[in-house]
Amino acid sequence: MSSTKYRVAVIGCGRMGQNYAEAYTTYPDTEIVAIVDANAQRREVLGGRFDVAALYPDVDALLRDIVPDVAVVVTPTKYMKETVIACAEAGVKGISTEKPIAACLQDADAMVDICAERGVVFAGGNLQRAMNEVQEAASRLHSGEFGRIRGVSVHGFGGEISGGGCQHISVLRLFANAEVEEVIAWGTPPEALNAKTDEGLIINGRFHLTNGLECSVFGTPTSCRGVDVWTDEYLVRWDWNPPEIFKGYDSQGTRVRIDPNYSPYPWNEFSYLTGSIRSFLAAVDGNGHPWITGADLRQALEVAIAAKLSATRNSTPVRLPLEDRSLALYPRPYRWLGGDATGRPQSVTEATG
Length: 353
Prior knowledge:
This protein is an alpha/beta fold. The chain folds into two domains: 6-128 and 269-293, 3-Layer(aba) Sandwich (Rossmann fold); 130-259 and 298-319, Dihydrodipicolinate Reductase, domain 2 (2-Layer Sandwich), CATH 3.30.360. The protein has helices spanning 15-26, 40-49, 59-65, 80-90, 105-118, 132-143, 166-176, 190-193, 272-284, 294-312, 333-337, 348-351; strands at residues 6-11, 30-36, 55-56, 70-73, 94-96, 121-123, 151-155, 158-160, 180-188, 199-209, 214-218, 227-230, 234-238, 244-249, 255-258, 318-319. The strands form two sheets. Strands 7, 8, 9, 10, 11, 12, 13, 14, 15 and 16 form a ten-stranded mixed sheet that branches. Strands 3-2-1-4-5-6 form a six-stranded parallel sheet, with helices on both faces. The chain is globular, with a radius of gyration of 20 Å. 48% of the residues are buried.
């Protein structure tokens, strides 16, 4: 842990933002110096709850007074681009954002690009890719401990292929150590396929990866709801929990689950949000990279857009990266606009914790 105490601003302090605030008030190397939230009543309540005096209605008001070391952007997706760019231009050292990063690819590009240009560490958010056991399983796959990867598959890629499906794509890319370079997809039901959002859309198909692997994609859960990777002897299964590891077969020919023997991790207070935050802070301190980055979220969005595009074109193969960066896929309204604007406001009682 760094001896530096990072000054943190939480920008967007609804339900998920409050989870981040709880974490950043727990760690000895971080201090919340400002809270930004458009809801005046909630903003005042949260100032008292987290003992923060500097409260602002928007990011511009914040940056006129304070340029924090770290900006934790947990706004609805619609407002992420303007917030991330404003913080990067102001000189913030590290910025994290949430899922999905954007609706339009060129907006995601703009955030990734400006952070790269300004030397800003740009992290993703509360994704299972940042679980320490997922990271360790990936390292062991990459080291060759389990042998050469022979196949990969994605299960349950439906419902929200951008808002929630970014979990699948982020773990797939990590485990396979490769990018998706071609997508062919079938989508259902028709009303979801023809909508502007990803809500209710179920995608079946195939991803071709840059390392030559072919990934089968199942829109509904099978015996797994996540990502399988297998070698000649092993299967590694991420199923929304620490990955299971199987080795060999029993007398009936069924894979045998073994103890994965994961290494202890010193941080576990906030599930996989912990890995996201601690790896982010380490990167800001100059040690390694965030376990989930803004670029990872951009790649997940691009795969989701490509999948829907393929499905709407009668399963035409679509090559990545996409040439048309104006393409978009909107998340469901709650993710795009937030609970206050979509009939799910947080009560003052709930905000008090």
